[in-house]
Write a structure and sequence with these properties.
heterodimer, A: alpha+beta, 6-stranded mixed barrel, about 15% strand, B: 3-stranded antiparallel sheet, 4 helices, about 60% helix
């Protein structure tokens, strides 16, 4: 039976069809011959043989049917028919397919991200057994790292975990035959590799013996570093590398999944270049919390049981070391949860939910459109019923069209998701955990396919059932009007929701757009054009005191000044919007004049150590007094320069020049006032965003307080990399083992500081655009449907004297009623959302009336435009035709 | 397009008839390979013009037998040097035929008894 079935599927083809024709013709010829033999003339025999052959077409049909089951044949018919419908109304089809493709593509793309980050198991064996351990202070609050001695205590006591490991991040400089390079180092206990249970690619991982004090120094390389620096050389094991001036031997290479995990991954830690053994000194200060700790639960041990044990361990610690550990507790969380923190998890799920919602609104719209067309095709469908098509057959045929739409839309959509993947990866903030693990795979395709299938249910079934139900009306000629339309109210609710959604999203996009513009226009207080910055860290092994560091930077500045590629050069502990140290110091005037309350945030200033021409290079205006110069050295009196805001806080209304302030017990004489600078706040990784008001700043001469780690700021004379090359060469001439880190164009850093706002604005704009598009399709579909249904009624009205204009107005009025309710809800929703978001806005009034008016106008215009076509159609109804039609 | 009118033109019990035609054709082929025209001729001759199998049921029937694998077809040359398709019964076909034949005779015998005695 199975064989027969297979033969059926593959057996019948055009060649066989031709052979069969030949066979029939041979048969006829034989009859003809026989007739001729019995005495008929050739022509008589031909006619008679044809007659005897009977209905050849029928024979051919039934032969074909013997091969191809009827259902398959019907499917073929349906698909052909669907494609023909597709081509007959190309614009209609393109709108539907485009909506579906965008919907499926967007949702699939979002799914691939959310699934990859939230739901894909961590890339380790038995990831559900991995936990992260913390200590928690008696005051509660955030979990803190563990102290070294406490970690050692845990390893001796904890039974319910297979292994625990401690690690911390470090930076280390590699020197050798190439340019000195700053590496991301992870200092880990050898058990780190046991906990993660990922085998090395080459060689071995660290072993307990490696962590001793007297053993030789060994290092394990991360895969990406191994590829980049050693060209994936398998013979790397045993090679020596120089790290911070010491020789280390490479013992192995591990894949990228071996990395700093958990809370540190959530903080956007990058790939580790080298793993160094961590040796914990048991005599270390027990109150010094510096280590991250992970562990692996024993099989069949629940997290709750492990927590119970940790409580006992914490109690024992508190009893043994009361001065450091009293009331401290030990916490364990699943590594899943610490890797992706609940707020990130929630917002990702929210984004996916929003997209799925928009997608289903799109599907309902398509359902409306198909419904309209189903009504338009009423006569055709009725004709088919009349000649014997069953209702199921019609439903199946209409569903086939939906399947074709969903199929085409799904294929394009999944293609779009794949095409957009690299762009999405780029747009995602790199601080998002697991972003670098995101891959497109079969599960993404499967999701796209499932979504297409779901969309058929969402938009295909109801129109098919409704459209065919209409034809069960008694006859073709009776008015098949629907007296009560149960779907109508539901559809209007949907339209109101769509208008409200579009309004909220447009308002959000508008406010964010305004914020973005304002952010780009805000005076920064300095001129970033043409400035290149880089970080330098002098190792304490060779620059043992502050004076030697001071000498190095003084020489560097002199050398840079002489270089032809730089206009001017300066150093500072940080640059605006760039990396660096911005210490928070209280502003304390020595004369104790009228000062603001101690402890107020205004009195916390950012402290910068800079060279004298820092202000000139960055274009920060000097408002009064002078900047640092050769007079201000280690032997002369300590001087300081205040920012305008600091001067205003310290001595409001008075001239601060010549007055003194106290910092860390030293007196500083104020010699100048400079302008305020944004991107220099004490909070935030890079001095906060452009939206943060400038914090009071005090500048101290770097010649009087030398630091080892500084930012070099140069104003390039030439565009291109000339200045950077000159900087590199100059640094190498002074110290061959010093890597240049974080070389950046200051302009780029400023642009990057608004990148998150730009991403959010772009996303909201895309959402609001799609919502507007969907809304107009929805309005059009619903009204066109309504006009179709009411053609008879409109005909009666017009024959009773209603003019086209009145009819048009009646239809438009319905749209306007929906618009009114939708706009009302949307605008109040938008205001609520805007107020909730006001912390995200910058110099933008969340209740900006003119913007709301604009948005309302845009929405209203879109609705009227979408309603115009159906209204116009209603206005041009020919009453004679409309009445005769029924 | 649409649904073809139910093909009940073969008479009251098309399925029964269909099965019977299949059986008759296989019995005809049991004597040796024949082309379509010869099958129709043979049926007419042997049944003394009682059974007239039209082309519209002969060929679909042959196709069904092909699909089941009970006959196979080959192109050859007819007695009048005409290209024709010759049908041969297969081993599976013979087995099926004898089974069907027993069933047919059982049924016929039963019917005959009923007609005689009931």
């Amino acid at each position: 039976m199975t064989v027969g079935w297979l033969r059926r599927i593959f057996g019948w083809n055009p060649r066989q069809e031709r052979a069969f024709s030949e066979e029939l013709e041979a048969h006829r010829a034989m009859i003809e011959e026989e007739l001729q033999r019995s005495g008929l003339s050739l022509s008589e025999a031909r006619v008679e043989s044809r007659r005897r052959m009977g209905n050849v077409v029928l024979a051919r049909e039934s032969v074909r049917e013997a091969w191809i089951p009827r259902s398959l044949h019907a499917l073929h018919q349906d698909v052909t028919y669907a494609l023909r419908q597709f081509l007959r109304a190309p614009a209609f089809s393109v709108v539907i397919v485009a909506t579906l493709a965008l919907g499926i593509g967007g949702t699939t793309a979002a799914f691939s991200v959310v699934c990859g980050i939230l739901w894909r198991p961590l890339p380790y064996p038995h990831p559900d057994r991995l936990v992260e351990l913390f200590e928690q202070a008696p005051t509660g609050g955030a979990f803190s790292r563990a102290s070294g001695p406490n970690y050692l205590f845990w390893t001796a006591r904890i039974q319910r975990l297979d292994a625990i490991a401690a690690f911390r991040s470090d930076g280390i400089t590699m020197t050798g035959d190439q340019e000195p390079e700053y590496l991301n180092a992870s200092v880990v206990t050898p058990s780190f590799f046991d906990v993660l249970s990922v085998p090395p690619i080459v060689g071995r991982v660290l072993e307990p013996a490696d962590a001793g004090y007297r053993t030789s120094r060994v290092v394990v390389l991360g895969e990406s570093f191994w590829r980049a620096r050693f060209g994936a050389d398998m013979a790397v094991v045993g090679r020596a590398v120089t790290l911070d001036g010491e020789r280390y031997f490479v013992v192995g290479v591990v894949p990228p999944s071996v990395r700093e995990v958990g809370r540190s991954q959530a903080a956007g830690a990058g790939d580790t270049d080298v793993f160094l053994p961590l040796t914990i000194n048991p005599q270390e200060n027990r109150g010094n919390h510096t280590l991250r700790v992970i562990g692996r639960l024993r099989p069949q041990v629940a997290l709750a049981e492990a927590r119970q044990e940790l409580r006992m361990v914490a109690a024992e610690l508190a009893q043994t070391f009361p001065e450091t550990n009293a009331n401290w507790s030990v916490r364990a969380e699943r590594l899943d949860d610490t890797t992706i923190e609940p707020p990130v998890r929630r917002s990702l799920v929210f984004v996916l939910g929003a997209i799925v919602l928009v997608f289903f609104i799109a599907c309902t719209n398509i359902a409306n459109l198909l419904l309209v067309r189903g009504i338009q095709r009423r006569a055709e469908l009725a004709l088919r019923v009349a000649i014997g098509a069953g209702r199921l057959r019609l439903i199946r045929q209409l569903l086939t069209e939906s399947v074709v739409f969903a199929g085409v839309g799904g294929v394009i959509g999944v293609g779009l998701a794949f095409a957009a993947h690299p762009l999405i990866l780029e747009a995602l903030p790199s601080s998002l955990p697991r972003v670098n693990e995101l891959r497109l795979d079969l599960s993404v395709v499967a999701f796209g396919v499932a979504l297409s299938g779901l969309s058929i249910v969402a938009f295909g079934v109801i129109p098919a059932v409704v459209a065919t139900r209409l034809h069960l009306r008694p006859t073709l000629t009776t008015a098949a009007r629907i007296a009560a339309n149960p779907a109508g109210r539901w559809r209007e609710t949907l339209l109101v929701a769509q208008i409200a959604l579009a309004t909220v999203l447009s308002a959000g996009a508008g406010l964010l757009g305004q914020t973005l513009v304002r952010l780009q226009q805000v005076p920064l207080g300095f001129e970033p054009m043409g400035i290149v910055t880089a970080r330098l860290s002098l190792p304490s092994t060779r620059y043992t005191d502050a004076a030697s560091a001071g000498r190095f930077y003084a020489d560097l500045l002199v050398a840079l000044q002489r270089s032809g590629d730089t206009d001017a050069a300066a150093i500072g502990t940080s640059v605006p919007f760039g990396p660096g140290v911005r210490a928070a110091v209280p502003l304390t005037p020595s004369d104790a004049a009228a000062t603001p309350e101690a402890g107020s945030d205004e009195r916390i200033a950012a402290e910068h150590m800079v060279s004298g021409n820092y202000f000139r290079v960055l274009g920060i205006p000097v408002l009064a007094g002078r900047t640092f110069d050769d007079r201000d050295d280690a032997r002369s009196a300590a001087v300081t320069i205040l920012s305008q805001a600091a001067a205003r806080v310290l001595w409001p209304g008075a001239n601060p020049i010549g007055r003194t302030l106290t910092r860390a017990g030293r007196q500083f004489e104020v010699i100048g006032i400079v302008g305020d600078v944004r991107g220099s706040d004490v909070r935030g990784l890079r001095g906060g965003g452009a939206d943060v008001a400038p914090r009071p700043a005090i500048y101290v001469a770097s010649s009087q307080s030398p630091q080892r780690t500084m930012s070099v700021v140069i104003r390039a004379r030439t565009s291109g990399g000339g200045a950077v090359r000159a900087l590199r060469a100059t640094v190498r001439a002074l110290d061959t083992a010093l890597p240049l880190r974080q070389v950046e164009a200051l302009e780029q850093s400023v642009v990057a500081s608004v990148a998150p706002v730009r991403t959010t604005t772009a996303m909201t704009a895309v959402f609001s655009g799609s919502a507007l598009f969907l809304m107009s399709i929805g309005i059009y579909g619903a009204l066109a449907f309504g006009v179709r249904q009411r053609t008879h009624e409109i005909g009666i009205r017009m024959s009773l004297g209603a003019t086209g204009g009145q009819v048009r107005l009646a239809i438009l009025r319905r749209a306007l009623a929906v618009l009114g309710v939708g706009l009302g809800l949307g605008l109040s929703g938008a205001a609520a959302v805007a107020l909730a978001l006001s912390s995200q806005l910058f110099e933008t009034n969340p209740l900006n009336v003119s913007m709301y008016v604009t948005i309302a106008a845009v929405i209203a215009l879109t609705v009227v435009l979408a309603a115009w076509l159906p209204a116009q159609r209603a206005a041009t109804v020919d009453p004679i035709k409309a009445l005769r039609q029924e | 397009m649409g649904r073809r009118p139910a093909s009940s033109t073969d008479g009251g019990a098309p399925d029964l008839l269909r099965g019977t035609v299949d059986l008759l054709i296989m019995r005809t082929l049991a004597t040796g390979p024949l082309h379509g025209y010869a099958i129709a001729q043979r049926l007419r001759l042997v049944s003394e013009d009682v059974l007239q199998v039209g082309e519209s049921s002969l060929y679909p029937s042959l196709q069904r037998l092909l699909i089941q694998g009970w006959v196979k077809a080959e192109w050859g040359t007819s007695e009048n040097n005409r290209r024709a398709r010759f049908y041969t019964i297969t081993a599976a076909g013979r087995k099926h035929l004898s089974a069907e034949r027993r069933e047919f005779e059982r049924l016929l015998g039963a019917m005959a008894r009923v007609m005689r005695e009931a």
